[in-house]
Batch of 2 targets.
Target 1
Amino acid sequence: MTSTAANDGSRAQAQIGVTGLAVMGSNLARNLARHGHTVAVHNRSKAKTDVLIADHGSEGNFIPSESIADFVASLELPRRVLIMVKAGDPTDAVINELADAMEPGDIIIDGGNARFTDTIRREAAMRERGLHFVGAGVSGGEVGALEGPSIMPGGSVESYKSLGPLLESISAHVDGIPCCAHIGTDGSGHFVKMVHNGIEYSDMQLIGEAYDLMRRVLGYSAAEIAAVFREWNAGELESYLVEITAEVLDKIDPQTGKALVDVIVDAAEQKGTGRWTVQSALDLGVPVTGIAEAVFARALSGSRAQRAATRGLTGGDLPSADEALAGRDADAFVEDIRLALFGSKVIAYAQGFDQITAGSVEHNWGVKPVDLATIWRGGCIIRARFLNRIRDAYTENPELLSLILDPYFRDAVGGALGSWRRVVTTAVTLGIPTPGFSSSLAYYDGLRADRLPAALTQGQRDYFGAHTYERIDAPVGKKFHILWSEGGAEVEA
């Protein structure tokens, strides 16, 4: 089909508009057009609109516009506009410009990686003006945007009735089910996407630790480790990230003939969603230890001046790899790493779902974990085979207190523990950092412990700050205090 000018007199009506035509916005517009929707397109600089129409105008019906006024005029009622611009002030500027040109009942959708608190603020402001505001998390990268992402829209139920069928049509589908669902009100969609990205951070860190152990303990080449990941991807670890890990490790640098991974600077960057996840978890009081360690590991990798200054410091009296392996052969250690990776990945997802549940309660969103397990099975970066198991777990028990209490995951993690402990022990013995594996195991052991040293912590707090404590032989919630400087008697607080 050919593109149609918005102001040519025909007043052709688009079902949805996209403003912000960088790669993600352009690909989402193309995806919508490929699925039979007439798409109005706009960009602050006309050149990007022209490129989209010139290169991809034949893929569907586009209505290009140079001004916001013409762009909005080309949309059918209620108007639906997807914003794909840089987060922060640029997003607010576009929202306000659109709002001035729109009418009550119209829908503005922010598909960027906005901070969920900004989305809460924007939704309230637009609601005051009679407009619907939808914060939609979109995962899948550039390819997913074009071929089918996972989409996590928040906002009002009314807005989803109008917008949902369009988004569901362009999302990835698994077993015929769209990877898109209404998440909840105001900032819920961007909150869920934020935690999705936090799980992604943890998953990538764990994969990196598995790679590092095979490289440094077993002396495997990048290509040999690629083969291991490819084999793992045929089993219960099957996931997008494990799949692409093999591809990255197999890539040869054309300039040097070395494995590409060996010529990439070992300093991982981040755009902020991982930090937001940890900050939010701290506010909610949810221990997302694996996600936090992944964020800190990236920060440490980027501390290049400090690392250069401390490189070569003693690690103590370290044994050889053969001594640390204590008679285990390479294949046995690789299997240990696989199980440690699986157990740690389960913890990452469990912590992420715990944070989402806490956030949902805090903001009264009504997020359903089973919906997330369903829509994350395709399109998104953390898609994995065991999301089917997570979906089954929350279908069986929507009120599950922790993912590791589900019978499948309880048994799977329990079966991995011996290997997991051997991997962490070996890494510590050899001075190889494994913050993801180690913190995930410590979290699991903390949960299952009969008693934690927090009893001592509470006693210390009562001593220096009169913060009180509870007794194991008193009703829950009843507080006590020791008169430490007045004879040491216990009193009810």
Note: Confidence is low (pLDDT under 50) at residues 1-10.
Target 2
Amino acid sequence: MKRTIAIVCGGDTSEFEVSLRSAQGIYSFIDKERYTLYIVEMRGADWHVQLPDGTKAPVDRNDFSFRLGGDKVVFDFAYITIHGTPGEDGRLQGYFDMLHIPYSCCGVLAAALTYDKFVCNQYLKTFGVRIADSLMLRRGQSVSDEDVIGKIGLPCFIKPGLGGSSFGVTKVKTKEQIQPAIAKAFGEAEEVLVEAFMDGTELTCGCYKTRGKSVVFPITEVISHNEYFDYKAKYDGESDEITPARIPDELRDRVQKLTSAIYDILGASGIIRVDYIVTEGDKINLLEVNTTPGMTSTSFIPQQVRAANMDIKDVMTDIIENQF
């Protein structure tokens, strides 16, 4: 009998549309001969299933089910592809844990930890992972221009401490840009990160592990056509993404080893993607950890799966079956 899979997308941040695109990608990747698939879209209290005939069915949040005709459909598994709250920060994971519904990604602790960029990076720093110098502000707090320049320096990045897809991010080059950039970042999240600029090669590496295997994908080299890897570079083709990266074998091996180690330190599950900047002297610096990475056909993970000569359908099956 086929398992019934919910591909859960949407969410309550600016990444809503990005999440919908990832859901379509995942729907295309999963083996439909093995599983029955439905896309579940969430925004606030509006949770609904997209039905094949184009209509929608409300989700009963008491048990994460819905009605199809006269029958009640209960999901066996949730593939979470919400980029942002509530799917990337541990909230939805806690809900599914309470309902005893297995899901695709990290548990509550790892999800909450990695969603907060400052906390995650500071935690991994204690394990010897190199990170940029940074300051964190919570809403209601402020920092002077002089402190930013003295402690972090210019240029620097000012960005939301939560969320992704480069929403609310500014590369700050002058003193006059600091406070407007902080205000912009607070428009996206309750925390703001002021982070030192690191000049180097941007790399990203995906990884997943199951009871029977450990897979670290080929590394992607990212070359933005813009000031940095912003939204247009990520989603509108304004970048070059080279997989495998044009780096020495020794550096490749170190990045892959570090990615695997970060996976284990965090107690991750499912697919993660870790972003880095390699600075002078081949120093590997962590940018951030993504526990629900983008999954459109052109996203980094599908690119890396292809470069590894693997079938994305098999990877999806690995992720799902590992939970049973």
Note: Confidence is low (pLDDT under 50) at residues 228-235.
